[in-house]
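Subject line: Sequence and fold of a protein, written as structure tokens
Area: Proteins and the way their chains fold up in space.
Start of record: The labelled sequence and token lines come straight after this line.
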Amino acid sequence: MAVPGAMGSLLVFNTNDGSVVKVLTGLTGGWRDVAFTPDGQYLLGASEASSRLTAIVWRTSNWSRYREIRASLPHWLRAVALSPDARWLAAGGWNYLQIYDLDTGEKVTDVPQPGRYVYSLQFSPNGQYLASANGGTAAKLWRVSDWSEVRTLAEMLPENVSLAYSPDGRYLALSAGSSVRVWNTSSWDAPLYTLDRGSFESAVPVVFTADSQFVVTRWNASTVKVFGAADGVEHRSIALSITVAPFLYGLAVRGSTDLYTGIYDQQELNRCLSLARAGHRRLGVERLERGVHLHAG
């Protein structure tokens, strides 16, 4: 498990006993994110300070640096994604999406954007496509071979957007405001189904279970629900036991049975922020074990 630490570091934990395996350095302060490749062979750490991107890819076998990019950005960074083969880095922010070749360290293209912030980026598990979602405008699909647009998935989106591919690549989910739409990636026709959360429009993470059988999302301020990935049929509803100022920063899912939630009341949130300042941050987590992801919202 990897989490952003203090002073531009990443902390890698052993999830069995909670011990720190490695402290990786080299990132800047400011906005940060972490991501493992699906095979667990590489770990990406990315940070942005004063519109300067720092991205480092480490080999998880010995924690040596595999690739590193430092570049100027047009504006603040809001989303990054690493291709499954660790070849491409996608970086998005205010009306920009830049693609970097990690083999050469050079920017290869600026992908035209529909406006506003790119808030979510996801490569398909086979590395052939990149999905992007811009808060307030549109979600689009791009072909990695030439970075051309394949199609617009949805338009007139609200500000809160989040994308997730199923581990087997069969489904793509878009959480946007009060709805979750799921596509079958074999055809990219109209969404297979849409889950409607009514008036609940907070920033909502969406994830698939490691076996790709279920999609999990926050349903309202006090509930998380589990649906069949293929048909959208509800399988489980989980009440959240929170009494003060609830925050749901992420969902972590293992297999098809175990559900973990990054849920904190205000007191717990303050404690986490205190731990973060000490270099033991609990928000913004990427776990090496396949199918387990917990991200800061």
